[in-house]
Amino acid sequence: MNLYDKLIRECSELLKDYAVRPLPLDSKGPLWETEEEQRLIFQKDMAYELGGGNLPAVSALAYTSQAAEQDRLLLCGPDLPDLTADSPYARLTVLHIDDKDWQDDQAYRVLRQMEYTRYHIYPRGFMMRISTSAGREPVRVSRQALREGLDFSKVGQLFLRAYRQHPQVRAVSLLFITAPGFPYELLAEKAARMEAVTGSLDKIFNNLVMDCRSCSLKPVCDEVEGLRELHFTRRS
């Protein structure tokens, strides 16, 4: 699974002028509390919103077969306790997958199952307001949760645990971004292209389009190395 690797490299290039630091991973300590379902955080209880108003709120997900020895949790910009007002926000997730898991018709279904994981993570005091149609993922952060110690390390570990529930996932690299001035709009473009690659896989594995000339995703196949080859392999 190297279809997303070029996009992953391009995302890394966006970070070259910004400080990125690792966040602590405590595999033995208790995890931050989660809710059974999304609990509303009203404005009167909110400290601030990540991606609030017209600020960027980007979520990007990519898959790779590149080896990773362990999970990584990273932050570019201020942590939650250091923010005092609405902030731009992005979350970039890379799932490291074994190649052998992508050789059958279940590949696309498994990819989507992994993606939909984000709809079932409810950290207390961290209300994600996901809009797939708008391509945005703003977050409301509770004042009470901040007083009790909520930070990106605690939130991130919940994401890591949830993604690692999928047996195909060998490791997770998760990056939160709140840095002022970061090119969020460029990251949003790459997130949209990642989604387009996944959409192309849907058509390929379900044999929905046999003539490349009539496929709306032809530009994606033209750009992403290996995608066209996969299509022709499926047709043979």
What features would you describe in this structure?
The model has no long low-confidence stretch (mean pLDDT 86). Helix 5 runs parallel beside helix 7 (227-235). The two termini are 20 Å apart. This protein has 7 helices and 8 strands; from the N terminus they run H-E-E-E-E-E-H-E-E-H-H-E-H-H-H. The chain is globular and about 50 Å long. 31% of the residues lie in helices and 19% in strands. The longest helix is centred in the C-terminal third of the chain and has 22 residues, at 184-205. With 236 residues, the protein is an alpha/beta fold. The chain has a 5-stranded mixed beta sheet with strand order 1-4-8-5-3, sandwiched between helices. Strands 2-7-6 form a 3-stranded antiparallel beta sheet.
Radius of gyration over alpha carbons? 18 Å
N-end to C-end Cα span: 20 Å
Biggest sheet: strands, sense, closure? 5 strands, mixed
Helix content: 25-40%
* % residues in beta strands: 15-25%
SSE order: HEEEEEHEEHHEHHH
Quaternary structure type: single chain
Mean pLDDT: 86
- Helix/strand-derived category reads alpha/beta
Tally of DSSP β-strands = 8
In DSSP terms (H or I, runs of 4 or more residues), the helix count works out at 7
**Which geometry do the CA atoms define?**
globular
Give the low-confidence spans.
none
Strand order of the largest sheet: 1-4-8-5-3
